[in-house]
Amino acid sequence: MRFLIKEIKDKQEAKLSxxxxxxxxxxxxNSRRSISDLADNLKISKPAIVQKINxxxxxxxxxxxxxxxxxxxxxxxxxxxxxxxxxxxxTEKVSHDLIxxxxxxxxxxxxxxxxxxxxxxxxxVHEIIEDIENIVPI
Length: 138
Prior knowledge:
It contains five helices and six strands. By secondary structure, it is of the alpha+beta class. About 6% of the residues have low confidence.
């Protein structure tokens, strides 16, 4: 199981219990932990873990990984850019803005310090970095 974790800047935005915080901490350490492992660590039942995960998704704290693409195989070089962004961005809008840039063919949001990965077909990737920076600071 993999999740993206959204940063909550306003404490009033999402009320998190001690168990919710511990669950998030465990998922940050390893987002592929099994439900059984999470239940054992938190000392609660498996159905309670599933309920907490669903609750965190409803609150917008946990997000499912999302991939946007507009892939056309071309004769130009292909690059991957890894970008570190602020957590909690409006990923859907940012993704649509990025994919509209000519040459950007893949937009992938994931966990890790570089949480945005772009796939680019372009002769000179430096030419479109300015367009990317207008949408997402690099």
